Amino acid sequence: MAVANTQFVKRIQDIMRQDAGINGDAQRIDQISWILFLKVYDDCEKDWEITEDDYQSIIPEGMQWREWAVDNKDGNALTGDELLSFVNNELLPGLKNITVSSETPIKQAIVKDAFIDANNYMKNGVLLRQVINVIDEQDFTDPQDRHMFNDIYEGILKQLQSAGNSGEFYTPRALTDFIAETLQPKLGEKMADFACGTGGFLISTLNVLKEQIKSVEDQEKYNNSVFGIEKKGQPYILAVTNLLLHDVSNPDIVHGNSLEKKVDEYTEKDKFDIIMMNPPFGGSELPVIKQNFPTDLQSSETADLFMALIMYRLKEGGRVGLILPDGFLFGDDGSKLSLKKRLLTDFNLHTIIRLPTSIFAPYTSIATNILFFDKTKPTEKTWFYRLDMPEGYKHFSKTRPMKLEHFDPVREWWNERQEIQDKDGNYKSRAYTAKEIEENGYSLDLCGFPTKVEEVLPPEKLMAKYTAEREELNSKIETTLDAIKALLEEN
After folding, report:
1. Cβ(297)–Cβ(335) under 8 Å?
2. Which of 50, 219, 230, 459 has its CA 20 to 30 A from that of 336?
3. 8 Å CB contact between 83 and 123
4. φ/ψ of residue 202, rounded to 5
5. 429-481: per-residue pLDDT in tens?
6. Which of 243, 261, 260 is nearest to 252 (CA)?
7. What is the pLDDT of residue 480?
8. C-alpha dihedral (159, 164, 165, 171), degrees to nearest 10
9. What is the pLDDT of residues 260-299, one digit of tens each?
10. What φ, ψ does residue 317 adopt, rounded to 5°?
């Protein structure tokens, strides 16, 4: 079963590649996402029909998966032009136009939100039928198949990494798991991610909480433990689908923009015990969005606005694990400076982990960091720790991604913190007081990675160096070719 599931996405994509209507991985994943959601939702509804009295589906008559998608091999299944007509002219318009109100339960309202931006890109109804049949093979009422969905989900995320700008929705699982493990969420607390993408931080949190469930009351707390907001339709569908399959029957994920509300309008009920985020960085927002923030915190950088948002939506005693680019650490423009001053005076910025480069490859090569802070007291000192590239790695890649075990050096250091100095005198780990940081112009660019200085040689020595390197390389190539030739002769 596991092997079949790991090939699930590939099987579907191989079918879709034959369809002239789909252009690239981003559209293929988009198409898979909404079809998969309908299948998963139908299987969840089968459970709700058993466990709830008088359960009524919000999906219009004739549009539930079981009513049109299942092929009973009796020759009556929709296919070809008839299937395309149904999907394009009835199914998608019908789901987009579902009526919801403030009284509609979350688990029903999500259907309309899931389909606001959904599109059918496929033009060949026979190929669409084949895709639907592959997805229908999964039985998500079966706990084993639910568990196997993790393989499917990871397969989709790996495809997202190479799907152009869709990579912005992917945070490596090692990162989300490490931050969740470090913040140690407890049942009864509420965790939030205001740009949740496909839901990586939400799932990592649920995986920690799952181990704490001992009673029916605990299960109810688990069901209400995470909250997300996602702006774009495709990752929203994936996040909701994944929460449904992690036994969260009311996925509290909003399809919208976290930055659209004035931050001073948030009340206590809008605040959270834990916030974990990898906010979009490098982007910008419209001037009208910036006006939702105090003048000194208005920024053209999206990540800065999310940092400000967190400050307004964290409860007293709450804690944060946040991924930010290097630009925030050394930036000295007005808004970044104001954010860092506020971070030190109103929060306890206790730890910054400098992350090795290429974690987000191939989407971006921007250097990143994890900031851990809480709302307990002003910052007295901040510990910095540089996490070096694991031994044997020059860089991370899609085929050799970062793993949770690569955080073992941080785990060993975390509870008994000590200064660590490199042979060249640079600090790998050190604590700096808030006063030292202030005197340093609020720069948090400390315990960073050593900068390699390239030796500049005179032309004659440079030519000799390259000639020697070329001869060495040619020798290695000849040795390898001889070895291949010997193998061929043996066979």
Report:
1. yes
2. 230
3. no
4. -65, -45
5. 999 999 999 999 999 999 988 865 444 556 666 676 677 777 777 777 877 77
6. 243
7. 79
8. 30
9. 999 999 999 999 999 999 998 877 778 899 999 999 999 8
10. 85, -5
Position 407 confidence tier, pLDDT thresholds 50, 70, 90: very high
Q: Which domain holds residue 416?
A: 167-439
| Residue type at position 205 | T
pTM for the full model? 0.86
**Residue 368: how many CB atoms within 10 A of its CB?**
22
Pair 90, 63: CB distance under 8 Å: yes
Q: Both 278 and 200 in a single domain?
A: yes
Number of structural domains in the chain: 3
Check residue 339 and give its pLDDT. 96
Burial of 491 (0-12, 13-18, 19+ CB in 10 A): exposed
Phi-psi region of 54 (alpha: psi -120 to 50; beta: other; left: phi over 0): left
Token pair for residue 292? 């939702």
Compute the average pLDDT of residues 404-430: 93
Does some domain include residue 450?
Answer: no
Tens of pLDDT, residues 356-367? 988 876 667 788
**CA 483, chain centre distance (Å):** 44
Q: Quick check: helix, strand or coil at residue 194?
A: coil
Q: Is residue 468 one of the residues assigned to a domain?
A: yes
* pLDDT on residue 329: 92
Distance of CA 276 to the CA centre of its chain: 11
DSSP assignment string, 359-393: TTTTT----EEEEEEESSS--SEEEEEE-PPPTT-
Q: Is the Cα dihedral 171, 175, 176, 179 positive or negative?
A: negative
